[in-house]
Amino acid sequence: MNCPAPLFDSLDYFDKTPQPLKLNSDDKQQVSAAMQKDYEQAHAFIYSYRGSQATFNAYRREIERLLHWCWNIANKNLPQLKRSDIESYIEFCQKPPLTWIGVKNVNRFVQSQGARIVNPEWRPFVAGVEKAAHRKGAEADPKHYTLSQKALQAIFAVCSSFFNYLIQEEYTDMNPVLQIRQKSKFIRKQQTAQVIRRLTELQWAYVIETVEMLANSEPERHERTLFMMNALYGMYLRISELAASDRWEPQMGHFKQDGDGNWWFTTVGKGNKERMITVSDAMLKALRRYRQFLGLSSLPTPGETTPLIENTQSGGPIRSTRFLRSEVQFCFDKAVERLQKDGFNDDAEQLMSATVHWLRHTGISDDVKHRPREHVRDDAGHGSSAITDKYIDIELRARHASAKNKAIKPEWLEHEKNAETET
């Protein structure tokens, strides 16, 4: 089965008005009027999420897959889909054809001679490999593709939202996703608290000390990185909240002092929500150090428009989250080397799997131990205290240590058996 072509370009090239639908040039399937209408409805729905790059990408991915399945597998159009069709679609997503599975994320379209053309390497699904395994040379294999529980939840959420939109547009009269009564046959219910992926105290100590050493030895490159690491941990920032976008450009002037002399940082995060974050004395000290390196005044002035994370080449703000991730990963790698050198091999092994987002988790987890959870909740931008509560738990090492010596058999029985063995 041939792999279908991508339908929707990136946000930068996404026009408000949909163009005529085009399929693979070697595809025998013709574009029908019904398919064009499906495409136009999907285009308008995805466009409505243009306010957030991450949300736009997520919705584009799910709707694109659904359309490909409708047209290429089910031979149906959106208004024809019933409950059973959605169940078949989910089962398809759990085991798509190998020709539909790639081994890396690539752009859907590429620039060629002034035009946007289909990237032949793009696939609707991507097989992944654990970060630690990849570092050891393991490669992704389409045969081992699995759909995670988080991905399944995204299918239900996005498709349900899409059909609600189609009902409002009077394009269909029902939401087949809502008619699936037993979603548990697809999505497992977790009875235990989800483990928050974060750094241990030792790992974080090695990471931040490593970055400080790098900043001292190569300030031109790593003073900026040191400030980033402090902000990601100390203010629970997401990587997207450090990078500039069309909806928000983080600036030095977003650090502000109130009438009581307290400092706050304003950001716009997930869901395009603005929030104020308390700035600790330690974070303020990190800000002073960074600004001194930049040749600026000790603290920001009201309305200062200096980019928070500056592109050293252009002088403007950094917009690429990929670049920021690579800088953080470099620091993780150096910390791993130091841990291994000092004999902390288990901690080094675990740190190999860490991502940038672990710094936010670590900062929240460490603070919620001694700060009121409502304060942490508001600084983190959590919608409810229930989300913050997930970060309140005991360390897994301590939990395992308390269970390490618990017995299965009664102690007296073990004593009797040992006595019999000795005689």
Please summarize what this structure is.
With 423 residues, the protein is mainly α. Helices cover 46% and strands 6% of the residues.
What Rg do the Cα atoms give? Answer: 26 Å
Corresponding CATH superfamily of the largest domain:
Intergrase catalytic core
The residue ranges in which pLDDT falls below 50 over 5 or more consecutive positions are: none
And the CATH topology of the largest domain? hpI Integrase, Chain A
The rounded distance between the terminal residues' Cα atoms is: 72 Å
Looking at the overall shape, the CATH architecture of the largest domain is: Orthogonal Bundle
Number of strands: 7
In words, what does this structure look like?
The structure is a single chain. Helix content is 46%, strand content 6%. It is mainly alpha-helical. A three-stranded antiparallel β-sheet has the order 5-6-7. Strands 1-4 form a two-stranded parallel ribbon. A hairpin with a 2-residue loop joins strand 2 and strand 3 (115-118). Helix 2 (53-74) packs across helix 5 (149-168). It is globular. The termini are far apart.
Secondary-structure map:
Blueprint: H1 33-47, H2 53-74, H3 83-94, E1 101-102, E2 109-112, E3 115-118, E4 125-126, H4 131-135, H5 149-168, H6 201-217, H7 219-234, E5 255-257, E6 263-268, E7 274-278, H8 281-294, H9 321-341, H10 345-351, H11 357-367, H12 373-380, H13 385-389, H14 396-403, H15 411-422
Parallel strand pairs: 1-4
Antiparallel strand pairs: 2-3, 5-6, 6-7
